[in-house]
Amino acid sequence: MKLTFLKLPFLTCVGLGLALAGCTGAGAEGDDELGSDETETEAEATDTDADSEASEGTDTEPDPCDDPQPGQVCFLDGGFLSLGLQPTTVVAADLSGDGEVDLVASSISASFTRVLLGQGGGAFSEPVSSTLGTGVRHLAAGDINLDGHADLVVAKVLGATGTGVAPGDGTGSFGAAPIANTGNTPRAVVIGDLDGDGWLDVVTADETGATLYVLLSDGAGAIPTITPLAVGVEPYDLALDDFDDDGALDIAVVERTPSTVSLLWGAGDGSFAAPEPFGVGDKPRGLGAGDVDGDGDTDLLSADHDAGTVTLLRNLGDRSFAAGESFPVGVAPYSAVIADVSGDGLGDLVSADSGSASLTIYPSIDGAGFGEPLTFYAGEQPFDLAAAELDGDGRMDLVVADFAGGSVAVLITGT
C-alpha cells in the first residue's frame, strides 16, 4: 500500500486527520501562520473571496505558495504517518539506493525500527520493520561496509549499551548490530570520513560520561579503533562538518549542563583538538548546522530546551564564532535544524518545540537577517527533526518525530 498526502494549499498545519479540523492543535493556541497576513483557513478564505468577488468584482489575494515573498513559508502537502511506536529519532536518507529519500524512525522503548520507503513526490510505502533491540536512542545512516547499501549506526542505552552498525540490504531491512562499548549512555551518533581513507567513521556522545568516542571504520562493517575524547558535561547532540574549511571534518557537540556548544577541530587523520566551548541558551539539547548568510561557512543552531529559545552561532571563518544570537521559540525546544524552507537560498532557523506541539521557523531574509517567527502544528509532542528534499522541487522539506502521537509528520514546502 502506498501512503500519499492530501494537497493542502493555504493551510499552515499538516495532517490527514487535521485538514478538516481548522488546522489547530494542542499547545498551538490556534495562531499558526502561513508567513503572510492571511490567517484564515482554506474554507474561510474561499468563502470570503467568493463573497468579495460577487459584491465588488475584485480579484482574490495572490497565493503565497505560488510566489513566496521574503519572510514567508508555505507547506502545500503534509500528513501524519502512524508508526506503532513512539519515535524519539527520525532520519531522512536514501536507504534503498533508488534516488528517493526514505525515512527511518526508532524509539527508546521499542525493539524495532520503522522504515518508510520514499515513492517520490512526498509519498511513502507502508512501514518496514527491523528488530534492533530495545533502547535505540539515536540513529545515523550511511554505507559503512561499502556494499552499496545504506547501513544504520545505532546508539543503544538499554541491554547491551554502546554503538553498533546494523547492515542494510537495500530493501529497508537491517540485520543485527554488534555493539561496541562507548559508555553507558550513548546519546547521539553522527557519521563521516574522519581520516580521509574513503570509509565512513562514527562519533558517539556518551551523555553521562562527558565523553565522545571516535570510531574509525575499516570499511568492512567493523569498528576496530575507538578513541575517547573528553568534553563538557552531558553531551547531547552532535554535528559533523568542515567548519574551518581546511579539508578535514570537525565535531560540534552541544553540552547541556554548561549550556555550551563545543568545537573539536579535526586534523584529518581521525584525531581532534581539545574542545573549544561557545555559550548558548539554558540547557540545550538539539544542534543544527547550515549556512544562514550565504558566506560559505557552516553556522550552528542550538535548541535551548529550558530557555525556550534557539541560539545561532555565526561562523566567522577563522575557527571562531560570533556571540550567540538568541531567538524565542515554543516551550521546551528539543531539536533544531538550519534548512532553506523559504526558498531564498539561505538557511532558515527551525525548532521542534516539544512542549508546544509546534515547529517554530525564523525565515531568512537576504541582507536583513530573519523575519518574524512562524509556527506550525507538528504533532502532540515533536521531538526529533530532519530536513530533506522529498518531492524534487529543490526546496527542503521537514520530517518530525511526534513522540506522543506515535507518528512522523511530513511537511512538504510549496512553490
TrEMBL record:
Residues 1-21 form the signal peptide. Residues 29-66 have a biased composition (Acidic residues). One of its GO terms (biological process) is integrin-mediated signaling pathway. The keyword Zinc does not apply. Keywords: Integrin, Signal. Residues 28-70 are annotated as: Disordered. The keyword Transmembrane helix does not apply. Pfam families: FG-GAP_3. This is Na-Ca exchanger/integrin-beta4. It comes from Plesiocystis pacifica SIR-1. The lineage of its organism: Bacteria, Pseudomonadati, Myxococcota, Polyangia, Nannocystales.
